[in-house]
């Protein structure tokens, strides 16, 4: 297991390096560079004539005239060594400040959604497979199709309405008014958790529907395996048998797609965030693209891709633990 | 002695989409304590499912009908009617494993791949023996040792995929016995194993039964196996028990027509009359020094090691026009590789495969260019069997590249037919893919002609393959292989997956087709009796080499090589009075055997059939045996196989 982990760690480091290069390339793609946009923004409307020489001066001052490879190292070096993602020109402050707490809020929503998805879909999928053909199974199937067909924002609106009626007015956003700008404290975290469940439920809804079907399908296959019958034939109690043999393999496809889930949730986040009045990174990313604020976009992309790569690493480890054949290379 | 198990009027009902079906009807059988009951029957006869009813392991759609009784006498002497016990009844937890043990047909699949062998054996022990973990482990090791697994204290921590099939079945027996059952239900426990391994496992089971005084229900389709292990027999047919009695009564003097038919259909190695060798026929194919090596890539931390594995070496033989050459050997012996290399479905790494053509002259298939191959490819064909891969795809690819002169028939008639094509299109595929024929009417005519010859109902040509039984599917496969009128067809285990009665039909069909079309077959099979029935000559393979090669009667009735002798001795005959004393021959325990060849030539059979050069020595007319030659053998006495 140790060697396997080491191998995967090395793999992850290499992937992250390549990914960071790609993100940097993406940042370079829009026409014009930071100096152009900086000059435009700084002097537009002031009546000052900006010459190419002025822009060149800014470029030199910011080190943007260096070759691309060097600029890549400046950029990534700044991030690794000083947690400095550069300047967000649209906000005229550092990217770190712009992103600020949003990282943790976004991470919180992502994480809560993932946990909720797995907590519901795995046991329910297993149950549906064991009770195949029963009324409950059919009911769950109908729910699944509903879940897959219902658009997120609509669900968010409906949930918002009912949450408002049942739990009081203060349900949009991630914090109650009194904590909005308060420093972090235990009470603030608790307040956040109270708000977190709604976006998590909305975002998890379709994932749950989808993963229930996945777990149900693989579990049904596993249940028909001879090794399960053989275990039953040696008198293993049914509940223990289900968990030890088929279930362990049935969650395999769910575990192996953790990385995809992260990506999907992040993509769905902005619409839900708009409806629920959340401030999170997806919306910011969209805005950064529109403003061509590539430092901000790059920073968010980088964090997202790193999160996905890291989740893939975790899922590899989990898979190896679930199915020892993987690390034995069989 | 009292009966330990008495099944009375057992009727099972399955609720399926097609309505209620009864796979078992009114079946009654009983087993005396300490004895073995053999339940025989062909696939779908209900033999397996009726024992699953005893264990309450039936699928959810099944129910045991009113009036059925399964009386089982527990260890403490109390009788319980298992037909009335519900599957989740706590008593079943004791009975399953603790009272009645069970082993299954597929040793590959009966262990869970994600836990070690030891983990699963210890689970059974801890459930039924009340031992702690350490004691359970000790007992597990002891049991592994008892079933003949070497180095059990290391093996106990291995995963199933690290063991061979035979070893896994031994481990499964160890598992079933470790919980201390008094009755063992063995469901085709040796069917998936090679014949020599089967012989060992059968002996092991007989020994253990005697030692532990266990009772046994032994389910099998193989009358030879049942004749060797059972005291009593119950013959099942279409869900009913048609005949019951002692082994001797039933086999020597069957009362029912079905039993008689079944016995007649079984190919018997002890009574087979092989086809006589062909005389004065031209050679079709000459194989000379054929060898195949595979590269195996092993992933290490930062690099990949490439290892060359020699699958097949020094294969030299010929096939005459209209002849069937049988290729026998155990799994992994390289039979399939030889067949495929001859068709250039895989590239040989050395040697020649000379294909003699009357008009266009000889061609070496091993070195022919793609263009040259294309010209012969429908003259050679293949009919074969494979494991779980999507065979119809493979078949399609091979057929696309292998056109008018050669052909291939696959073993598994289920996966080798594309479910989305009609029977007509499947049979026509080689013609269409090779561009041999383009005219629709012409193709139709040829398809109908070949279908009629393979006894396929012409009405069926428009249907899809799912509607057909295994035997019918295999006919379709054979028709497909023959449609381009090939000169040479490789049949790779093409009857192995079929029931004996169907198997006999297909063998007869192949013989008929051969007589009519003059096609040559390379008939690859692990079932020696079937090979003996159909082959003019036979080659015995072991670890990628020929051990013995010659006319079928000489190979089967006067074998020379110790491996051939071991292989033949391992075949159980359907004769309860026949002595079953398999000779053991395992690669790592071969002892050098010296024997006297003709005219006092001293032959030394290799102890390790690997690196030392072996030569095929002609010991009798056309009968070759692999051996090492001692110095004093004179050159003129040795006729090694040279291409003519």
What coarse outline of chain B follows from CA principal-axis ratios?
Answer: globular
Secondary-structure class of chain B: alpha/beta
Q: Give me the Rg of chain B, rounded.
A: 26 Å
- CATH homology superfamily of the largest domain in chain A: MetI-like
Helix content estimate of chain A: over 70%
Give a description of the structure:
- The complex is a heterodimer of chains A (330) and B (644).
- Chain A has 15 helices and two strands.
- Chain A is an all-alpha fold.
- Chain A folds into two domains: 2-96, no CATH class; 102-322, MetI-like fold.
- A two-stranded antiparallel ribbon of chain A has the order 1-2.
- In chain B, strands 14, 17, 18, 19, 20, 21, 22, 23, 24, 25 and 26 form an eleven-stranded mixed sheet that branches. In chain B, strands 7-8-9-3-10-11 form a six-stranded mixed sheet, sandwiched between helices.
- Chain B contains 20 helices and 26 strands.
- The interface between A and B is medium-sized, with 29 and 36 residues.
List the helices and strands and how they pair.
The complex is a heterodimer of chains A (330) and B (644).
Chain A: H1 2-28, H2 34-43, H3 52-62, H4 68-82, E1 87-88, E2 93-94, H5 95-99, H6 102-130, H7 135-149, H8 152-167, H9 186-223, H10 226-233, H11 238-250, H12 252-255, H13 258-276, H14 281-291, H15 294-322
Antiparallel strand pairs in A: 1-2
Helix pairs in contact in A: 1-15, 2-3, 6-7, 6-9, 6-13, 7-9, 8-9, 8-13, 9-11, 9-13, 10-11, 13-14, 13-15, 14-15
Chain B: E1 3-16, E2 19-32, E3 36-40, H1 47-54, E4 62-64, E5 69-73, E6 79-81, H2 90-99, E7 100-103, H3 117-129, H4 133-146, H5 152-155, H6 165-178, E8 183-187, H7 195-212, E9 215-220, H8 223-229, E10 232-237, E11 240-246, H9 247-252, H10 257-265, E12 283-299, E13 304-320, E14 324-328, H11 335-342, E15 350-355, E16 363-364, H12 370-376, E17 378-384, H13 391-401, E18 404-410, H14 423-434, H15 440-453, H16 470-482, E19 488-492, H17 500-517, E20 520-524, H18 528-534, E21 537-542, E22 545-551, H19 552-557, H20 562-569, E23 593-596, E24 602-605, E25 615-620, E26 623-629
Parallel strand pairs in B: 3-9, 3-10, 7-8, 8-9, 14-20, 14-21, 17-18, 17-19, 18-19, 19-20
Antiparallel strand pairs in B: 1-2, 1-4, 1-5, 5-6, 10-11, 12-13, 12-15, 15-16, 21-22, 22-26, 23-24, 24-26, 25-26
């Amino acid at each position: 297991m140790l060697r396997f982990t080491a191998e995967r760690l090395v793999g992850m480091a290499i992937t992250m390096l390549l990914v960071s290069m790609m993100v940097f390339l993406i940042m370079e793609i829009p026409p014009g560079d930071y100096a152009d946009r900086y000059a435009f923004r700084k002097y537009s409307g002031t009546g000052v004539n900006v010459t190419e020489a002025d822009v060149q001066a800014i470029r030199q001052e910011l080190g943007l005239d260096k070759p691309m490879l060097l600029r890549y190292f400046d950029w990534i070096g700044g991030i690794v060594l000083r947690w400095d993602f550069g300047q967000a020109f649209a906000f005229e402050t550092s990217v770190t400040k712009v992103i600020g707490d949003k990282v943790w809020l976004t991470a919180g929503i992502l994480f809560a959604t993932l946990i909720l998805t797995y907590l519901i879909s795995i046991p329910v999928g297993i149950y549906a497979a064991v009770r195949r053909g029963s009324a409950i199974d059919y009911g769950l199937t109908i729910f699944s199709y509903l879940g897959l067909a219902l658009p997120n924002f609509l669900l968010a609106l409906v949930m918002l309405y009912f949450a408002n009626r049942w739990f009081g007015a203060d349900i949009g956003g991630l914090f109650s008014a009194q904590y909005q700008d308060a420093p972090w404290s235990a009470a603030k975290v608790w307040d956040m958790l109270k708000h977190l469940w709604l976006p998590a439920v909305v975002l998890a809804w379709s994932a749950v529907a989808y993963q229930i079907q996945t777990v149900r399908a693989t579990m049904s296959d596993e249940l028909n395996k001879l090794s399960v019958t053989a275990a039953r034939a040696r008198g293993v109690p049914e509940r223990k048998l289900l968990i030890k043999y088929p279930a362990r393999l049935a969650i395999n496809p769910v575990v192996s797609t953790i990385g995809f889930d992260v990506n999907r949730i992040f993509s769905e986040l902005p619409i839900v965030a708009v409806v629920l009045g959340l401030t999170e990174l997806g919306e910011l990313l969209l805005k950064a693209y529109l403003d061509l604020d590539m430092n901000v976009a790059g920073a968010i992309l980088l964090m997202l891709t790193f999160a996905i790569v890291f989740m893939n690493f975790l899922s590899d480890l989990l898979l190896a633990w679930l199915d020892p054949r993987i690390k034995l290379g069989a | 002695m009292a009966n330990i198990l008495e099944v009375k009027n057992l009727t099972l009902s399955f609720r399926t989409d097609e309505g209620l079906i009864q796979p078992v009807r009114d079946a009654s059988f009983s087993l005396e304590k300490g004895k073995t009951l053999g339940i025989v029957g062909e696939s779908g006869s209900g033999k397996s499912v009726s024992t699953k009813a005893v264990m309450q392991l039936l699928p959810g759609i099944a129910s045991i009908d009113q009036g059925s009784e399964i009386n089982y006498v527990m260890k403490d002497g109390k009788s319980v009617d298992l037909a009335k016990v519900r599957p989740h009844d706590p008593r079943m937890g004791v009975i399953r494993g603790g009272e009645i043990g069970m082993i299954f047909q597929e040793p590959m699949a009966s262990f869970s791949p994600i836990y070690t062998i030891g983990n699963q054996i210890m689970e059974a022990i801890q459930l039924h023996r009340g031992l702690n973990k350490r004691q359970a482990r000790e007992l597990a090791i002891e049991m592994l040792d008892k079933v003949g697994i070497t180095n059990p204290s290391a093996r106990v921590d291995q995963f199933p995929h690290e063991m061979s099939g035979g070893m896994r079945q031994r481990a499964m027996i160890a598992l079933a016995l470790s919980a201390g059952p008094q009755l063992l239900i063995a469901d085709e426990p040796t069917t998936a194993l090679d014949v020599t391994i089967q012989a060992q496992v059968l002996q092991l089971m007989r020994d253990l039964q005697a030692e532990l005084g266990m009772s046994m229900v032994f389910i099998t389709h193989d009358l030879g196996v049942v004749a060797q292990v059972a005291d009593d027999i119950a013959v099942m047919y279409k869900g009913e028990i048609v005949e019951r009695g002692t082994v001797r009564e039933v086999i020597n003097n069957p009362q029912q027509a079905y039993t008689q038919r079944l016995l007649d259909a079984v190919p018997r190695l002890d009574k087979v009359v092989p086809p006589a060798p062909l005389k004065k026929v031209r050679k079709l194919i000459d194989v000379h020094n054929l060898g195949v090596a595979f590269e195996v890539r092993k992933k290490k931390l930062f690099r990949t090691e490439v290892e060359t594995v020699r699958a097949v070496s020094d294969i030299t033989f010929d096939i005459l026009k209209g002849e069937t050459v049988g290729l026998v050997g155990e799994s992994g012996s390289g039979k399939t590789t030889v067949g495929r290399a001859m068709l250039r479905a895989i590239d040989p790494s050395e040697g020649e495969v000379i294909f003699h053509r009357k008009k266009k002259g000889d061609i070496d298939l091993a070195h022919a260019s793609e263009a040259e191959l294309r010209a012969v490819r429908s003259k050679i064909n293949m009919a074969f069997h494979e494991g779980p891969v999507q065979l119809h795809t493979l078949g399609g690819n091979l057929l696309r590249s292998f056109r008018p002169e050669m052909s291939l028939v696959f073993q598994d008639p289920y996966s080798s037919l594309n479910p989305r094509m009609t029977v007509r299109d499947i049979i026509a595929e080689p013609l269409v893919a090779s561009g041999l024929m383009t005219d629709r009417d012409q193709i139709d005519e040829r398809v109908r002609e070949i279908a009629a010859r393979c006894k396929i109902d012409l009405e069926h040509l428009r249907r899809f393959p799912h509607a057909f039984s295994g035997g019918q599917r295999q006919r379709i496969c054979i028709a497909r292989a023959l449609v381009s009128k090939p000169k040479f067809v490789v049949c790779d285990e093409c009857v192995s997956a079929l029931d004996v009665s169907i198997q006999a039909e297909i063998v007869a069909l192949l013989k008929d087709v051969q007589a009519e079309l003059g096609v040559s077959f390379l008939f690859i099979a692990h079932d020696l009796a079937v090979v003996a029935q159909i082959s003019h000559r036979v080659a015995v393979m072991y670890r990628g080499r020929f051990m013995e090669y010659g006319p079928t009667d000489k190979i089967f009735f006067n074998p020379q090589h110790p491996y051939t002798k071991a292989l033949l001795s391992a075949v159980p005959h359907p004769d309860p009075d026949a002595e079953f004393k398999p000779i053991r021959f395992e690669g790592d325990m071969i002892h050098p055997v010296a024997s006297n060849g003709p005219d006092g030539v001293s032959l030394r059979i290799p102890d390790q059939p690997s690196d030392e050069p072996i030569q095929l020595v002609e010991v009798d007319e056309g009968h070759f045996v692999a051996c090492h030659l001692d110095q004093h053998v004179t050159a003129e006495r040795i006729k090694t196989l040279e291409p003519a």
